Please model this.
Amino acid sequence: MRNIDAKKLSMPIEGAYSYGGYYDVPEVEPVREMLINEGWKFAPTELNGAEFMDFDDSDWKPVDLPHDFSLIPLPGGDNDEQIGPFSKQSPGRNATGHVMGGTGWYRKIIKTDNNFKGKLVKLNFDGTYNETKVWVNGIMVGNHVSGYTPYYYDITSALKPVGEDNIIAVRCRNNGRNAHWFSGAGIYRDVKLEMFDPIHVDPWGAFVTLSYLDSYETKVNVEARVVNETADDEHVTVQVVIRSHRGRNVGNAHQEIEVRANSWVRVTQMLHVSRAVIWSLENPYLYSAEITIKKGDRVIDEFKQKFGVRKIEVSAEKGFRLNGEPIYLKGGCVHHDNGLLGAAAFKRAEYRKVELLKEAGYNAVRTVHNPPSKYFLDACDELGMLVIEEFTDVWEVHKTPQDYATYFKETWEPDLTNMIKRDRNHPSVIMWSIGNEIPNRSTEDALRIQGALIKRVKELDPTRFVTQTVSPHMVNGGWEQVQPQLMSLDVCGYNNMSDKMESDHEQYPERIIYTSASYSSHALDYWKPVLNHQYVIGDFVWTAIDYLGEVGIGGYGNERYFAKPYPWILANGGALDLLYQPTGEAALAKVTYTDEELLLFTRMPKDDETLSAWRWTNSINTYSYGNKIGKKVVVEVYSK
Model:
């Protein structure tokens, strides 16, 4: 489709800018989207012909989504070679927590009804792992190879007439060694159908940005990508209403535009928001922008987008500021799994994760090493948690043989585009991380790829900062070789490198730094630079929550890092353990970051304990150890 400038085709109506009340939009509730998580069938095997309606799936297992098939118990039951879903034969071995991966098929029948009549229909996936093909009624509508980015397909032409059954078939393959942490497998996030008129706001097609903010007046820009998928030029009215959390109209505008056949128009309207409530960590207030398209008096599309009014700034002189106030980023690195729920992104599990992190004293998370679920970001918006959202762990050079580097050249741009379009309205997101500890063939290669990524991020979202995390062990030729990359970033993530900060600041005084991953065993050493230097804006401990995979990174007994074999499955680190119970590291965070005055924890009675740099101490908030009665324990006192 052609990109047509709305300024040439549209003219604002007099009085479109308003403080609310005199011009309202009729409230309509068309069925624009429908969650279809329930009523699927699943088979954990390679199959031929499973995409067709007449395929016999009577012996398949009924499942609801989200679903992670990597944690299904393996055939044959427990024996010397396997326990539950964990096996000595795992392709990823201890890196992925000894799970098997493999291929899984999903099928679901949907019956079209009057909601589908005359509508375009798109099938939206929030995340599948990882090589995924999708069919509708035997017609392949697309394939996707990134395990974490959202995507959708237009399935309108593949659907049967209204009233008939349609089969959606999805094949997910998680083969070989394609990650160095637990990835999960299958359709592990939401799936929904989106139905709208041929003239509509595109999925992820709205972007709300702050234009002006002071104590008396707030202006926001609402940008909408309006698409016309008909053969005729059309004249329509685009109306925008800003609604408060309680649904009150606090600002509105409308604009008449012409959208030419099979093309799209970017419509931007500025709105005054009366008595705006600012989004903050203490008061994470959300608004909704309701975008309505009318043809004459008829409403043909309505699109709703949540957002928050907030201002972010960062500099080497003043640090990070939220709404003009200085904020230390009290951060933790967080993988996407939910313990023994695996990668399945249940809404309650995602919210609980953020609730407990906030209770522990954290105000920021770094999503390692991939985009999180929409639910996770919704929770951060609603509970008041800042987010550094990371795109990928590799570019063109592999860390494991079958990882994302296999596809990066062909797919990075659509994957990055989808991530940012889905997530750029979340007020919790403050930075986009374009990579983690990226291995490269040369500085020239690194700068070429980094430049393309930064350019695309800024095209899609010029309002946030671009960062990347670096580590000495990924740099060929010494630390100076990475300086050209660091100079291209808005904010620089140093992994486990507090010793480089002061010397780098002397050489590059405008550089803004944060510890993107720090050893929990030296937590206070990493926090001191944040307190002492404005140019160091925060610290993100590795890790805030224990996770599956990277087995033994925290060390245990006399074993060294990554030495623990099957059947060990955990990293064995984290301020919160796998059940989200607080450890001594959480106690340290709480007395450091909050008003908590005193906490007592005890170390589990052990004759020998050797922990790695990624583990604080082996302690929990109890003194009851059952069969250890009569044994002495070490009491840890956490106090200001």
Notes: Confidence is low (pLDDT under 50) at residues 1-29, 557-561. The radius of gyration is 26 Å. The first helix runs from residue 6 to 9.
